[in-house]
Amino acid sequence: MDNPATEGKSFDKQDLAILRLLLADSRASLQEIGKAVGLSTTSCWNRIKRMTDSGAIDGYTIKVDLPKIGYHDTVIVQVTLESHSEETLDEFGRALKSIPEVLEASLISGDYDYFIKIAVKDTRDYERLLREKLYKIPGIRHSKSSFVLRTLKKEDTPLTS
């Protein structure tokens, strides 16, 4: 079993530099990465393979500009459930996974149980989503919604520079 106290300690400056480059452009060639970090392509490939095998690199993807595909608004929803039983939490989590507009959902501490980030086309679309999807999930006691007015910073990892 992994020990959280030792996670990340096997990554040196060059590993982190490789990760930064891949975060900026996951299609960068081994030659481009090697040149940027001062390593051979074979050394880069070995490091990337090791980080992939260890799970530090979880996959490769693209970034989508949501407004350009019609999702102009982001809503932060905080939800409190009636019950905190394992069954209720699991059922709520499964229901959230089935809603494509849910971008992120986290079980949190504090006054609310869940922090949910949702992409919608506009306020009418959000109202539809509430009525047709979110409020049909059993066990919601209370929710609070806030529309994001402007995103000041958005990163997936603290390594991005």
Automatic annotation (TrEMBL):
<keyword id="KW-0804">Transcription</keyword>
<dbReference type="InterPro" id="IPR036390">
    <property type="entry name" value="WH_DNA-bd_sf"/>
</dbReference>
<dbReference type="InterPro" id="IPR036388">
    <property type="entry name" value="WH-like_DNA-bd_sf"/>
</dbReference>
<dbReference type="Pfam" id="PF13404">
    <property type="entry name" value="HTH_AsnC-type"/>
</dbReference>
<dbReference type="InterPro" id="IPR019887">
    <property type="entry name" value="Tscrpt_reg_AsnC/Lrp_C"/>
</dbReference>
<protein>
    <submittedName>
        <fullName>Lrp/AsnC family transcriptional regulator</fullName>
    </submittedName>
</protein>
<feature type="domain" description="HTH asnC-type">
    <location>
        <begin position="11"/>
        <end position="72"/>
    </location>
</feature>
<keyword id="KW-0805">Transcription regulation</keyword>
<dbReference type="InterPro" id="IPR019888">
    <property type="entry name" value="Tscrpt_reg_AsnC-like"/>
</dbReference>
<dbReference type="InterPro" id="IPR000485">
    <property type="entry name" value="AsnC-type_HTH_dom"/>
</dbReference>
<dbReference type="Pfam" id="PF01037">
    <property type="entry name" value="AsnC_trans_reg"/>
</dbReference>
<keyword id="KW-0238">DNA-binding</keyword>
<dbReference type="InterPro" id="IPR019885">
    <property type="entry name" value="Tscrpt_reg_HTH_AsnC-type_CS"/>
</dbReference>
<dbReference type="InterPro" id="IPR011008">
    <property type="entry name" value="Dimeric_a/b-barrel"/>
</dbReference>
